[in-house]
């Protein structure tokens, strides 16, 4: 599966690099379930291997959940983004887990992502 690095799609570990003293890019596994995968561009893949570039402009801090949500909104969701994001926050009705823990326990949008983190978005709302 391709890695996403900024706006480019790369194969392998082309965007995994670091220099001593510099902030490193962060590689996370992102999964979608309960219907959230249907918001993504076809083929509606449930699992994505994403690399978020470290930003020199943010004081060397790692990317946050806010960075990831914005990345998903701009790069993976192609229509009806309002069903995923509301006021720059994940919409109510979508359960977010970070490494199998409720993201509310981790600081929600402020959580600093680490390489190897697994983030899951699950819709808890179902039609009938």
From TrEMBL:
Species name: Malassezia restricta (strain ATCC 96810 / NBRC 103918 / CBS 7877)
One GO-annotated biological process of the protein: tRNA thio-modification
Sites of 1-thioglycine modification: 128
Cross-link Glycyl lysine isopeptide (Gly-Lys) (interchain with K-? in acceptor proteins), where in sequence: 128
Keywords, ordered alphabetically: Cytoplasm, Isopeptide bond, tRNA processing, Ubl conjugation pathway
Subcellular location: Cytoplasm
Protein name: Ubiquitin-related modifier 1
Free-text function comment from the UniProt entry: Acts as a sulfur carrier required for 2-thiolation of mcm(5)S(2)U at tRNA wobble positions of cytosolic tRNA(Lys), tRNA(Glu) and tRNA(Gln). Serves as sulfur donor in tRNA 2-thiolation reaction by being thiocarboxylated (-COSH) at its C-terminus by the MOCS3 homolog UBA4. The sulfur is then transferred to tRNA to form 2-thiolation of mcm(5)S(2)U. Prior mcm(5) tRNA modification by the elongator complex is required for 2-thiolation. Also acts as a ubiquitin-like protein (UBL) that is covalently conjugated via an isopeptide bond to lysine residues of target proteins such as AHP1.
PTM (free text): C-terminal thiocarboxylation occurs in 2 steps, it is first acyl-adenylated (-COAMP) via the hesA/moeB/thiF part of UBA4, then thiocarboxylated (-COSH) via the rhodanese domain of UBA4.
Top-level taxon of the source organism: Eukaryota
Similarity section: Belongs to the URM1 family.
Assigned GO CC terms: cytosol
InterPro entries the UniProt entry points to: Beta-grasp_dom_sf (IPR012675), Mopterin_synth/thiamin_S_b (IPR016155), Urm1 (IPR015221)
HAMAP family (alphabetical): Urm1
Pathways involved: tRNA modification; 5-methoxycarbonylmethyl-2-thiouridine-tRNA biosynthesis
């Amino acid at each position: 599966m391709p890695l996403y690095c900024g706006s480019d799609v790369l194969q392998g570990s082309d965007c995994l690099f670091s220099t001593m003293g510099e902030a490193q890019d962060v590689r996370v596994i992102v999964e979608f379930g309960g219907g959230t995968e249907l918001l993504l561009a076809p083929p509606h893949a449930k699992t994505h291997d994403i690399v978020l570039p470290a930003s020199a402009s943010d004081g060397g801090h790692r990317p946050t959940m806010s960075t990831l949500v914005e990345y998903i909104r701009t790069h993976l969701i192609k229509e009806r983004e309002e069903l995923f994001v509301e006021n720059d926050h994940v919409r109510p009705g979508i359960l977010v887990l970070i490494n199998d823990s409720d993201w509310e326990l981790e600081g929600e949008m402020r959580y600093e992502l680490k390489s190897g983190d697994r983030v899951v978005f699950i819709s808890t709302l179902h039609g009938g």
